Amino acid sequence: MSQLLDPIRRADVEAVRDLLADNPQLANQPIAANPAEQTNAMQTPLHLAMPGDGRELRPSHVEIARLLIGAGAEIDAAGHGPNHGICSPLSLAAWGGHISLVALLLQHGAQANGLNETAPQHCPLQTAANHGHAEAARLLIDAGAQHGLAELI
């Protein structure tokens, strides 16, 4: 199990900073998507750093994402997200409607359309639109996400 798991879950910026300073490759170490279920589903620390829909976004979440990106976290890594199956961290940020995380990931080169292997309803734009996160949807469209009339309404 990754040393980053508990500090990310606690949103402990200092612990994450210290661990990454000593061992930056932890930023891409696969971790269990849901350890309680004991499945083979994996995700990255950057996936874990994205609060889900309905969860409060705190400055510590954004800072942890910055630290992971600074340590070389793969922006468009495939991983299993809650209720998403295979997706990128951007899909999870959009699902939560967390504008600052969506913007941060896009600024660092995240693909606005998400991953090819993601189910269409869980691509960043569709998940933002389906959960009523209009501002996140606008950011994704401005970044070039393919869209239709449904995502504009």
In short:
By secondary structure, the chain is mainly α.
Summarize model confidence as the mean pLDDT. Answer: 88
Low-confidence stretches: none
Main sheet strand line-up: 1-2
Strand tally, please? Answer: 4
Distance between the termini: 43 Å
Question: Which structural class matches the secondary elements?
Answer: mainly alpha
What is the share of helical residues? 40-55%
**Structural Rg:** 15 Å
Strand content: 5-15%
Structure, explained:
With 153 residues, the chain is mainly α. Helices cover 44% and strands 7% of the residues. It has 9 helices and 4 strands; from the N terminus they run H-H-E-E-H-H-E-E-H-H-H-H-H. The protein has a two-stranded antiparallel sheet. It has a two-stranded antiparallel sheet with strand order 3-4. A hairpin with a 3-residue loop joins strand 3 and strand 4. Helix 5 packs antiparallel against helix 6 and helix 7 packs antiparallel against helix 8. The longest helix is centred in the middle third of the chain and has 12 residues. It is globular.
